[in-house]
Sequence to fold (473 residues):
Amino acid sequence: MDNKTNNALYQQHIISISDMSREMLEFIIMTIEKIKRQKICSLLSGKIIGSCFFEPSTRTKLSFEVAVRKLGGTTIGFDNGVNTSLKKGETLADSIKIISSYTDALIIRHPKEGAARLAAQFSSVPVINGGDGANQHPTQTLLDLFTIYECHGRLDNLTVALAGDLKYGRTVHSLVQALSLFNTQFIFISPEELAMPEYLLSLLDQRNICYEQVYSIESILHETDILYMTRIQKERFDETEYKYIAARYILDKAMLTKAKPSLRVLHPLPRVDEIAPDVDETPFACYFQQAENGVYARMSLLALVLNKIV
Amino acid sequence: MSDYDSTDLKPGNGKSLQVEAIKDGVVIDHIPATQGVKIIKSLNLFASKVRIAVGFNLPSKMMGLKDLIKIEHRQFNEQEVNRLAIFAPNATINVIADYKVVQKTKMSLPSSIHGLFICPNSNCISHNEPVTSSFHLSERQGQTILQCHYCEKSFKLDIFAEI
Fold:
């Protein structure tokens, strides 16, 4: 697609992967590739971006702020909801009306699901969702998609295995939604208690996408293009059960001797024990490159919503 | 009993009715069996003083079994019709005047509904803000699914009937 003349994202909100078509995702990925090549440009020169983090976040907040600076813009905002007017009883709707009148675009992270959609309803400027509760985190999905594209030169017809907590992880849910537009073959690896939710399996059925559910990482490495690891959260289990379950979903260097040479391992980070440090030195490890791509993905989205031509 | 049509339904005309005829009001026909009670509850019909005649598990040529509700001196507004349509998307609303069907409206599942239900997700932003709840409706494997416009969570209709 020619992203010089047809920027459908100009002055639009970025709320959910479920709002995006395959064409739109491809358009964003092409823009990320271009922005990554350029590294620094002035597409946000003179623009003020509201950074509204109603709950703490390290990676997302830092990468958004770096993205704004690299594009020549500035940020105003807060990094948790404690000192905002919400504590005085102001509605999110009122807060957003006011902050949007000061800024050219808003980044919002909020513990309640649907907060970004609601913010978009009351904002006079584009809203970018930086995570709303357990619902969506579209910029994470876009950086994941871009990293997959960068690793394999395509998104179509890949075998993607997702391992760990597939029930509660919003990153895997959004990624499955997005990749299902690219004829992906999915392998889901999780304990039964943390299996992929039924509504997503129904979506895959509707789109005629093949998937299988297995219980071991090792058995699928020879046929997998992308292994997307996630953290199994301790609080979901009692301590003994956690140790037993989590041990079955750990990837180490020795296991990768059986892997397809083109396999790449991704992880939304932070990791705890699920990827052993010795994997970092292998050519399979792509999770740090993935984290770096977060800056380029966020630069691209900010540039697209605030410029007719990128 | 035959499915409702525009035949003269005046008492004493020789036709046998399993649910007593009404002179003026509405008849909701072709309600899937078991959904009648949910509709009465959802439309809060017990709270009104109007006369209501109901038939549950009536034989139907089209549906096998059906429920039927007759409400005297009552019309439905758009919100009520939408509420009705999600419980009985294939129902028919017959407007009765002087025992005759003067208008027949076939329901269809609306693509979205607003302000009818509270989102069952306790962490949904719509609970705390000045917005009307909103759901996108679809049918999956014969079941009506409501997806919250805000939190994007999907729910089966049965959950809402219990709220």
Summary: Chain A has nine helices and nine strands. The first strand of chain A starts at residue 48 and ends at 53.
